[in-house]
């Protein structure tokens, strides 16, 4: 049960701006990169998205916790955020699936949060100054916040952080295909995968073999997969050389590739492009993206702080042939998708698996399935076998 008396908590940004509110979730002190999410719903999926590892998430929607917590909506085995910030927590959750309160759930998981602060002012500050480190403390006592600021400035930065291996599975596991027989085998590199992703592939008849982040290209190919999937994940993509090397081996073998978010950044790097840090990133379930080829607009689920440096107009020549920017973010023109024209590979910076978010981009999983089917047919024809 939550107590009725509140404990004072302080949120301190690395540039010295601070906000005083009430403790929310566990009492204690926590540090991470302060980022804001504009999703109105889906807080359970958000807090359990491994891509948020090392980040303190500020919800811009003022009311959070209204539907409580349930056992179905978690996207991984634990709560992954380093801290959680809400304006006005629900006093009494109400939903037919609810089995408890969000603040109690955070407290039980040891996740430190803060409520009752002006999240709009905080978001505007981050939008102008950029994402930065922050700390939340509900154990400061009468100590001046100077000590907290000192500890924030000593905490790790997001640039240069190699976090995917920390959240990846340690042992391979299999998500079976829906239906009687698997139509395709997908080797999925778990860089911080969400449950909804293997589930989406399995629903299309794929047996998904989920593998640890540091699986090599040779190990991936040894599974004889129809396709290789690269998941989302936390941290700075510039550090993930192991995944880039593995992917280059896969690309050379001509096996179909699909990457999401961190996986998209890894594909860009494998093709020879760089990644860079956005000022404050894109997080939420309401991010518009344009498909360059069709002009269609999708409202997408996003959660990224880095992006890929790929030319927006025309095809770029790479070691693996021509590559085009297939999707563009409509808020700020950031490249949100890649398509290889000469090898079977494509990727998106956004989240077609949603969870939370709209399902506009779900057909991208079908595109991957079709790419695997086409490649299999072409290979059978080339070897003179039956298709
Ligand atoms: N959701 C993700 O995969 C995020 C990728 C990467 N950590 C970024 O912030 O850009």
From TrEMBL:
Pathway membership: Amino-acid biosynthesis; L-arginine biosynthesis; carbamoyl phosphate from bicarbonate: step 1/1; Pyrimidine metabolism; UMP biosynthesis via de novo pathway; (S)-dihydroorotate from bicarbonate: step 1/3
Q: Which UniProt keywords apply?
A: Amino-acid biosynthesis, Arginine biosynthesis, ATP-binding, Glutamine amidotransferase, Ligase, Nucleotide-binding, Pyrimidine biosynthesis
Residues that hold L-glutamine according to the record: 51, 233, 235, 262, 265, 303, 305-306
The reaction(s) annotated as catalysed by this protein in its Swiss-Prot or TrEMBL entry are: L-glutamine + H2O = L-glutamate + NH4(+); hydrogencarbonate + L-glutamine + 2 ATP + H2O = carbamoyl phosphate + L-glutamate + 2 ADP + phosphate + 2 H(+)
Q: Does the keyword Nucleotide-binding apply?
A: yes
> What are the BP-aspect GO terms?
'de novo' pyrimidine nucleobase biosynthetic process; 'de novo' UMP biosynthetic process; glutamine metabolic process; L-arginine biosynthetic process
| InterPro entries per the UniProt record, alphabetical | Anth_synth/Amidotransfase (IPR050472), CarbamoylP_synth_ssu (IPR006274), CarbamoylP_synth_ssu_N (IPR002474), CarbP_synth_ssu_N_sf (IPR036480), Class_I_gatase-like (IPR029062), CPSase_GATase1 (IPR035686), GATASE (IPR017926)
Summarizing the function annotation, the protein's role is: Small subunit of the glutamine-dependent carbamoyl phosphate synthetase (CPSase). CPSase catalyzes the formation of carbamoyl phosphate from the ammonia moiety of glutamine, carbonate, and phosphate donated by ATP, constituting the first step of 2 biosynthetic pathways, one leading to arginine and/or urea and the other to pyrimidine nucleotides. The small subunit (glutamine amidotransferase) binds and cleaves glutamine to supply the large subunit with the substrate ammonia.
Query: What NCBIfam families does UniProt report for this protein, alphabetically?
Result: CPSaseIIsmall, PRK12838.1
The family annotation for this protein states:
Belongs to the CarA family.
Quote the protein name from its UniProt record: Carbamoyl phosphate synthase small chain
């Amino acid at each position: 049960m939550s107590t009725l008396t509140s404990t004072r908590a302080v949120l301190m940004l690395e540039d010295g701006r601070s906000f005083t509110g009430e403790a929310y979730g566990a009492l204690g002190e926590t540090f991470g990169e302060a980022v804001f999410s504009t999703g109105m719903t889906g807080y359970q999926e958000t807090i359990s998205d491994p891509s948020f590892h090392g980040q303190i998430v500020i919800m811009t929607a003022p009311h959070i916790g209204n539907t409580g917590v349930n056992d179905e909506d978690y996207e991984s085995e634990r709560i992954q955020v380093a801290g959680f910030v809400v304006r006005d927590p629900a006093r009494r959750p109400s939903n037919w699936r609810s089995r408890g309160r969000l603040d109690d759930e955070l407290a039980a998981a040891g996740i430190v949060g803060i409520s009752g602060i002006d999240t709009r002012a905080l978001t505007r500050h981050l939008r102008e100054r950029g994402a930065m480190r922050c700390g939340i403390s509900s154990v400061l006592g009468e100590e001046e916040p100077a000590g907290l600021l000192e500890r924030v400035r000593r905490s790790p930065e997001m640039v240069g952080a190699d976090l995917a291996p920390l959240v990846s599975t340690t042992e391979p596991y299999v998500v079976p295909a829906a239906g009687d027989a698997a139509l395709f085998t997908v080797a999925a590199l778990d860089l911080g995968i969400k449950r909804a992703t293997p589930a989406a592939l399995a629903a299309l008849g794929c047996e998904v073999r989920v593998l640890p982040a540091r699986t090599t290209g040779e190990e991936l190919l040894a599974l004889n997969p129809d396709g290789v999937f690269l998941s989302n994940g936390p941290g700075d993509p510039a550090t993930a050389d192991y995944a880039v090397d593995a992917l280059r081996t896969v690309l050379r073998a001509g096996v179909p590739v699909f990457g999401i978010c961190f996986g998209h950044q890894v594909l860009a790097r494998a093709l020879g492009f760089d990644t860079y840090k956005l000022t404050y990133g894109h997080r939420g379930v309401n991010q518009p993206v344009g498909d360059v080829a069709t002009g269609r607009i999708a409202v997408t689920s996003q959660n990224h702080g880095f992006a890929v440096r790929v030319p927006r107009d025309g095809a770029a020549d790479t070691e693996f042939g021509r590559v085009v920017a297939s999707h563009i973010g409509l808020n700020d023109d950031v490249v949100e998708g890649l398509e290889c024209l000469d090898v079977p590979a494509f990727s998106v910076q956004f989240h077609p698996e949603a969870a939370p978010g709209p399902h506009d981009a779900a057909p991208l999983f079908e595109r991957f399935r079709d790419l695997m089917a086409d490649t299999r047919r072409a290979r059978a024809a080339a070897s003179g076998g039956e298709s």
